[in-house]
Request: fold
Amino acid sequence: MAAKAFQKIYTKITQITKATCSLKATGVGYDELATVNGKLAQVVKIAGDNITLQVFEGTEGIPTNAEVVFLGKAPTLKVSNQLAGRFFDAFGNPIDGGPEIEGKEVEIGGPSVNPVRRKQPSELIATGIAGIDLNNTLVSGQKIPFFADPDQPFNQVMATVALRAETDKIILGGMGMTNDDYLYFKNVFSNAGALDRIVCFMNTTENPPVERLLIPDMALTAAEYFAVEHNEKVLVLLTDMTSYADALAIVSNRMDQIPSKDSMPGSLYSDLAKIYEKAVQFPTGGSITIIAVTTLSGGDITHAVPDNTGYITEGQLFLRRDSDIGKVIVDPFRSLSRLKQLVTGKKTRRDHPQVMNAAVRLYADAANAKTKQENGFDLTNYDERTLAFAKDYSSQLLAIDVNLNTTEMLDVAWSLFGKYFKPEEVNIKKDLVDEFWPKK
Reply:
């Protein structure tokens, strides 16, 4: 028990709420861990010598004379190459039955990178999903969310991105996952033989919701290790940020803070920004790119979580079920990557920007034709061709199950142009048409 001698132990709790307990203590730091009656807790508020602790499992059964032991440190993660291929809980403990990690202990949740040490992103992150790579190309060091209804297969999309993305490491942070989700990710990664470049931090619905709040910081601490120490391109996938925000709301409500819009805490913007701003491109070649899922309740994009997210991130990817082809697509009208012009036509084939714009414009013409059709107006021959084009474009390029490289995507788009239109209807520069238009 020698270690006990240095730890501060208190036995007088002044106030207990559902999730927190308060006591008088000195020399404690923000975010420091403690145990209350053996339950893990964390310092969330310091006012003079009044300390408020958030108890992760809830305060049920804790008496006022419970033993409170301050551990003298904030949550940490041991980082080393041994992280690769492993599954952990929110505290960084292995949950895959494998051995403990040996490595350097790093505090999680540190500051984001100094802007002076950042580089303008310019590397392509190819995901193999045409709805992303063709229309909303991602750049290393970017932060971008998927907006999706809860019934959309966003976990499948995340797993697909993890398997296909051309990066060195993938870090997955799962929040509020069902056990099925957890096993799904585990099986997909194991079966694909991709585990050696994937690290997973999982909080399932069986764990206390409050523990979710540690997941993004754990994932990003691991990402920073690989990006900084090994100059690797790291892709961080966070799903689902709405569960993260719900956990924030639970804690702030239990601490009697006055909620702001949609019962979210007033600090929501800075809580989200603290995570997303960890995305960075380093001059040395390492980078952290963040793709998150934000589920929408009833498709409501004005809810506080997607609303705040939109101000922080560089675009969004919007999933929607296309009733014409019965598949989920990346919606070209509501999706946007604000950094795509940094790589399209520069790191991809030179016809990329023109092909992308032409295809979306023809898709928009098809949407207009559809409106005419629904309102009983006669369709022109051009309208009918755009409708046929839109169906093929959706199923062969926008659907999330399409797996092509960027060159193949462009070739498919040209073949669809050739199938339905004359070169002058497509409105692409003559030199590109001469080079790429499909030869009859």
About this structure: Residues 259 and 372 are 46 Å apart (CA to CA). The domain at 76-117+150-315 is CATH 3.40.50.12240 (Rossmann fold). The radius of gyration is 25 Å.
